[in-house]
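Notes to self, Putative peroxiredoxin:
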Amino acid sequence: MPDIGSDAPDFTLPNTKREAVTLSEQRGKNVVLAFFPAAFTGVCEKELCTFRDSLAAFNELDAAVYGICVDAPFSNAAFAEKNGLNFPILSDYARAAVRAYGIEHADFAGMAGYTAAKRSVFVVDKQGKLRFAWVADNPGQEPNYDDVQAAVKAL
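result:
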C-alpha cells in the first residue's frame, strides 16, 4: 500500500459508459476512492448507498467520490442504476489499480484464482497526494464514514 503523503498511484479506468477516467486528471479537487469487492452484494450496496446519501457533504468539501470494483462496466452500470448511485463507478477489471494500491483480495469468497478489491477507502488531495487510507481486514466490515469525511474536511 502506498504511504500517506506519497503520490497516489495513478490509473485510468472505464466508467459505466466505458469512458476513460484518469485519477491524475482530477487534480485540483479532492478525491475519495471507495474500492469495493463486488457489485450486488449486501455490504457493498450498503456502503455505496451511504456514500450516495452523503455526496452533498463531499461536494461541499470540494471532493469527488469514485466507487471502484473489478466487475465489468456493464455490471457496474446495472448496480449503479439499481441503487441510484449519483457518482461514477469505475471498472478495474484488469486489477491494475487494485495492485497499485496493494489491496488485492485473492481467492475472494473462496473462489480460487478470483481476485477482488479489498474494501478500502483512500482520500487524495488536490495535489494528488494520498492523505487517508483505510483497508478492511474483513470484506463484511464497512469504513467509518465520519472518519472519511473528517479526512476530507482536514484538507
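- The longest strand covers residues 63-69.
- The CA atoms of residues 29 and 126 lie 5 Å apart.
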